[in-house]
Design goal:
Radius of gyration: 21 Å
Structural class: mainly alpha
Number of strands: 0
Largest sheet: none
Number of domains: 1
Helix content: over 70%
């Protein structure tokens, strides 16, 4: 009896491909990134209580910056799959179509994100739109050049951090603003919450990772080990520079900089987004993606987590919903005296479960989320 082999078509978008061809581990990873982003964003409005367990507050703080970085990294991987048809055919028409699609999607997200800023000043969508626009210029590059460009983007932030503030009297810590073109450019490329320097490095690395065969289990393990090594290396550099005080060996004051200002470049927090922060973020992204791909490689396991996969496929809709419904609800209905880390975890878990249930019900009747459908109708 003849058997039929289903071959995954890399030309299919990871957003629109049927289940036989898509890597649903990417959707699961995106859902995990969304869960982490909810933890960070809700924590802005739910403050800790003095009696909160230290381990719970420390665990919540670990998501800061890492979840959004994973989200952008996964977006890069998805974009690589979205443009895979051109890499397979090398056809000029396919390249033009892929570039136009990225530009239109980027413009859509940029407009939505900028409009969204009045409600949500920590918006990532307009940055995501900029990343897609920049990706339209570089998606044809080989993975090695994408990685080189990611490194240059990361180091580019260091150059801007050292040069722009003293040269132009810019306060890096000023609140991002769109009130005039110069401020808007600084927000998008330097001082914003997710500026292109260095956040585009996450996207570029995702583009590079998306060019490898993510169906192969050996590549899952390489990503996992690579993520662990990146985090270990970043922690070692930070320990040597700050804990062992090797940074004092650098004559920064002779160069006109205060030692604390330079020491910030060896931190791993989201502000400022230093090279070590990028390494930490990429390490987490590698680990989340690899474990998600491993989990979803089995039909039985994938079926078990299918509702979460549906949530990952509707991440844009759920992202907007968690602000309009989640953040607004917290601001309006959660009394200050009741705020604690327990409320944070409870609300995050409840909202994530509600998101998964909503996504599962919606997918029974529709192939895409409402915002995803609107974007596709407008730009494709």
């Amino acid at each position: 009896m003849a058997t039929t082999t289903i071959v995954s078509d890399p030309s299919l978008s990871e957003i629109t491909a049927p289940s036989a061809a898509r890597l649903e581990g990417i959707d699961f990873a995106r859902a995990m990134a969304f869960l982490g982003m909810m933890m960070v964003n809700f924590h802005i409005y739910i403050h800790n209580a003095d009696t909160d367990p230290a381990w719970m507050t420390q665990l919540a703080s670990l998501f800061s910056g890492r979840a959004a970085a994973t989200f952008v990294f996964i977006a890069g991987v998805g974009t690589a799959l979205l443009t895979a048809r051109w890499r397979r055919t090398r056809d000029v028409a396919d390249r033009r179509a892929a570039r136009l699609s990225l530009l239109k999607r980027g413009l859509f997200l940029f407009i939505v994100g900028v409009s969204f800023r009045a409600q949500w000043p920590y918006d990532i969508l307009h940055f995501y739109g900029v990343f897609l626009g920049l990706a339209a210029l570089v998606f044809t590059l080989h993975a090695r050049w994408l990685v080189a460009l990611a490194i240059a983007t990361t180091l580019g932030f260091v150059a801007l951090y050292l040069f722009l503030p003293p040269a132009f009297g810019i306060d890096y810590w000023e609140s991002p603003s769109f009130h005039e073109p110069g401020a808007a450019l600084r927000d998008v490329f330097f001082t914003g919450h997710h500026p292109a320097f260095p956040w585009f490095a996450y996207f570029l690395t995702g583009l590079a990772v998306g060019q490898i065969d993510l169906h192969k289990s050996s590549n899952h393990w390489k990503l996992l080990i690579g993520g662990i090594l990146l985090i270990a290396l970043a922690k070692a550099i930070k320990f040597a520079a700050l804990d062992l005080n090797y940074i004092k060996l650098v004559p920064v004051e002779e160069w006109g900089y205060a030692l604390p200002y330079i020491a910030d470049l060896f931190g791993s927090s989201a502000y400022p987004p230093t090279p070590l922060y990028v390494m930490f973020g990429l390490g987490v992204g590698f680990i989340v993606l690899s474990l998600s791909l491993m989990l979803c490689a089995s039909d039985a396991r994938r079926k078990f987590v299918q509702p979460v996969i549906y949530a990952g496929q509707m991440a844009l809709t759920l992202y907007l919903g968690h602000v309009f419904i989640g953040v607004t609800g917290i601001e309006w209905f959660l009394p200050r005296e009741m705020e604690s880390i327990f409320w944070l975890y409870g609300i995050v878990i409840a909202f994530f479960i509600a998101s998964v249930v909503f996504a599962s019900i919606w997918r029974r009747y529709h192939s895409r989320g409402p915002v995803e459908w609107a974007m596709r109708r407008l730009v494709d």
